[in-house]
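Format notes (please read before filing issues)

Several people have asked whether sequences and structure tokens are stored in separate files. They are not. Every record keeps both together, in the order shown below: the sequence lines, then the token lines. Line labels are part of the format and must not be stripped during preprocessing.
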Amino acid sequence: MSNQLSRSTKQKAVQLKKKLKKTLEKTLKKTKILVANRGEIAIRIIRAIQELNYEAVAIYETPDNESRHIRIADEAVWIGDGPRADYLNIDKVIDAAINSEAIAIHPGYGFLAENADFARACEDAGIIFIGPSSGVIDKLGNKVMARQIMAEANIPMVPGSQNLQAGDAGLAEAAEFGKKYGYPIMLKATSGGGGRGIRRIEKEEDLAEQYPIARSEAKAAFNDDSVYLEKVVVQPKHVEVQIIADKNGKTVHLGTRDCSIQRRNQKLVEIAPAFHLSEAQNNEICETAVTAAKAAGYFNAGTVEFLLAPDGNYYFMEINTRLQVEHTVSEMITGIDIVRTQIKLAMGKELLFDQSDIKMRGHAIEMRINAEDPKNNFMPEGGKTVRVYRSPGGYGVRLDGFCYQGFTIPQVYDSLLVKMTVFGWSWNETVDRLKRCLTNFVITGPKTTIPFYLNLIQDPDFQNGEFDTSFLETHEHLFDYDEDRTEVNKLARLIAEIHHKGENTYAA
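Then the structure lines:
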């Protein structure tokens, strides 16, 4: 009897041990968050996830099988050969999250970030979408609907139209709009974003040619050929405001950014705070942004974008329902980690700071180091291998990238290699630091935007903060630089350093 009791006790002990082990494993098991993106923004988000003591799940297509974002993640899921098609495949991304047992998805920017169907698919699958609700994305992703919401909230806007009809009827509507408000006017994709689906019309004679092209571009980019019209504000500044809101409606702003220096309606240089704004004007624009976000019932992080006319009037453009590429400059001047805050809000936390707690200090400039040839209309340099990669550093310097020595740049994705953001207590200090960084930043193999930026920041108008959205068109001399000499000098300096020689031993 005693032997049987002993065996029974042992069995119970074994069972209890197994149960305790499973309980312990469950307790120690970390919550997983999947990052539905690639490149530098995936790395940025993965770092924030890991700092919050979650596990990061990366996804990747075959062309990205050597990307750094899948190396630093806790887990990586291959979703297909791509290119792009699988990153954009909602079912595959959701399946990757379910199979990896991720409870949340951060979409980053681009790809599915502003796709209401994707947010809705997350909601339907019981997965937390780190961003606004699908309903808010629906409303604000439709630019005409967004304008209606802003009009009801008395937000200042440039004159615009409803969706234009297809064919000759829409063409007639466009001609009537042009006669009423004058040219130039802008044809814009209703579901647009990222600078795509935009056609500037200088005179009525151009409408017949440009109208069908605009609809075709909108269809190709957003699977929606709807377009509408806005009156063009000539030579404006592009000013935007970073906002953050929790689920209780508490909404704060992180100040302004100036994103006026662009090429093909896409930003090249981002600055915080916006330049040449009086304190009163800055406060007014920021308060308007908060009002706009509340009117839309906004939650999580987003950006309210405005056009600032030369006469000082400003007009609502859109609300970007996602994290922005240029979020780094806002983080640098406020000290607030926007991505970390996004995740905490999505997990049900409240904003723990008030507007009065947020202090803007100094200046920050972000430049996108792209594998592009600025002299050849910014033609991408995909397919080339980075033979030398030597980045700058020091106080006030931040690098967000995925490039490394020996990395072959995929031809099928965006050309961004690394974002460099510098901070300084004054504008001049920031520009000086940026010049030092660009001078010492060595990337050989592909052509990059570094020599172009080095030329740009030495332009007197840039140094005085005199720039608007026409800056590149009115400063064609910025493309007049000796790229070979600039890069050879950098390499000579690097070689001299390797061989422990003085840095002044190279030819000037």
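For reference, the curators noted about this record: The chain is about 40% helix and 25% strand. Confidence is low (pLDDT under 50) at residues 502-508.
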